[in-house]
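Lecture notes, unit on binding sites. The following record was shown on slide 14. It pairs a sequence with glyoxylic acid.
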Amino acid sequence: MSGKPKLWISRELFPEWVDPIREWADVEAATEERAYSPAELKARLADVDAAMVGLSDRIGAEEVAGNTRLKVIANLGVGYNNLDIPALTAAGIVATNTPDVLNESVADYAWALMLAAARRVAESDRFVRSGAWKGSAFTRWLGPDVHGKTLGILGMGRIGRAIARRAAGFSMPVVYHNRSQLSAELEQEVGARYVSKQALLREADFLILVVPLTPESHHSIGAAELALMKPGALLVNVARGGIVDELALIEALRGERLAGAALDVFEGEPQVRAQLLEFDNVVLSPHIASASAETRRAMAMLAIENVRAALGLGEQAGHPPTALNPEALASRRAD
Ligand code: GLV
């Protein structure tokens, strides 16, 4: 026993990120991408002081039952629907996430998906690779213009605002819906107009989803909502799969009501419904909106700082910078 706290990292990280941690913790880091069963997660968490986990690691009361050692779970992502925060708080385990450092990269990616779906980038890439390109085709490959169209954003948190700011360069009016309306100053700064959810669905030519997945937002884009969307509109989801009722989306795509969709997230990821693969006008990607080199590093560094602080080490000892339930630390100290 070295006396250092023990940290388990469930996702593969670069050695140059992990090696410096070894100065203050005994680290066991995954060396491959894989899924863990609930029982395996429970066993892994049972004999460590800290864990850094990915968004596919679902941790709740069952996974931490009887665990008196674990102090912190640092999520490698801003969304934390994989963690049962009340259960972790009750167990005296602080949970942290990685907000802010990924806002701009996720916004870039939402735009990349929107442009790719509108201008048929993925589909034409497949066409060229297949060797099917035989000559110019003036009337093929036509997609809707993006510039000048109305951009709709559901969810106007920090990522939504970063998406909205980019619209000025494309001369796009922006409408948004959110649980609460932004201040007039913020609305002016990001150039967005608050509307009801129904008006958002009706007015947007491109609708980007950036709401967190909660019981309230689950399937909040279903058949009724899709039916309200403008014919020829395009749906982009960079939030969580469960927000969209995929079967309803498939029906809407079949009915050619929507021009297409661009999806970075899926209800049962990493499984993707076979029906979605059939549409050429659907762009699919494997949950990578934050995956720029700089941002993934920044997310890892923030998660590491959270672990250190929650273990009472480093400059922010006792104050993990992005704790989701700081009261869990306080209850532990009080014990
Ligand atoms: C990605 O989906 C994240 O929540 O960071």
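Take-home: The radius of gyration is 22 Å.
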